[in-house]
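Q: Fold this one first, please.
A: Sequence and structure below.
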Amino acid sequence: MKEFEILEKKLGINFQNKELLTQAFIHRSYLNENPKVNLGNNERLEFLGDAVLELVVTENLFAKYPDESEGKLTSWRAALVNTKMISAAASKIGFGDFLLLSKGEAKEEGKSRQYILANTFEAFIGSLYLDQGYGACREFIAKNLLVELPKIIKHELYRDAKSRFQEIAQEKVKITPTYQVLDEQGPDHAKYFTVGVYLSNEMVAKGSGYSKQEAEEVTAKNALEAKGWS
């Protein structure tokens, strides 16, 4: 097990329940090689942390930019909470040094490591929420993620295909696109998703990728082409 007190000191956060902190860093692969560990993996914490993260960011955008449209705020939020941005924040904090992975997973780099770091960031938020509440999460997210928002806005880093499709759809047909997973294949650590995008009940396009976010981005590109909006 890692020495998580080092991380606590670095972050200036002292967990009351140390097991919650540890669990946030446990990848499911670690438990396969260490079955005697008396903790679960971080997936449920990630589920909780994802919701807390989205609410904190949404609340911040709503309060800070009262004159911006729903479409613009949604695009900014999507750019801030995507895998690339969250994993970069996790890496900057040093979360990579505390991951509890199988020997095989520990060797993975690139997108695989990026996803693990992003998921761990969300799991950490989930554990922090359970241990210290919403206010502590809001402070942590503001310090480690929301600081990137001015750069996103200044350099228009939010203008990915998904954001563009949403803005144009809201402008032209007054409908916010929705995405639905149509199919999942492969083992848990290497899922391949197929996603469809809908305007009301009409499926405009579909696409695939090794994460839901990647599949949604491909789908949005296909939708822009399908509607002639690219």
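Q: Good. Now the second chain.
A: Here it is, same layout.
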Amino acid sequence: MKPNAAPPNQLVAENYDEFRRVARGVLNGDAQKLQIQPTDLAHAAAIKLFALNRVEVNGRTHFLSLSARIMRQILMDEVRRLRAAKRQAPPVTTQWPGDAGAPLDLEVLDVALTKLEDVSPELARLVEQRFFAGLTVEEIAIIDGVSDSTVKRQWRAARAWLVNEMQAGG
């Protein structure tokens, strides 16, 4: 492990309040339709992170990026479980970070994000960092070693691509 690397369990303990805040943000909108609450999502993600004892986590922002991917996987498993349990299950929605606009169907977003991973893994990672980890433009710029304006431009491009893909129906 590198000298500045911290074990995931230490990072979960140090960042747990923010971890729960991110879970609340992801579950805004239709959280009541799911059988998972923000604290449950945070706990499930923490358990998975604790199991990753061989993963090298270099600081808070890297930890939150990794957490974003894990929360996304857990959340999508829960959405699929809900849909499998009901014939006409309604969509589970959320919203873009910092935007009170039209709701987004989480499953449609996940499908589009998976396609974006094939087209541009960097943009998909940016969306996970912003959407699921709640990282700011400034934090992502530091992680990637680029300017804030570069991250803003990439965020606009990723969001436009996803909106277009979701409107096209996948």
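Q: Anything worth noting on the second one?
A: Residues 60-85 form the longest helix (26 residues).
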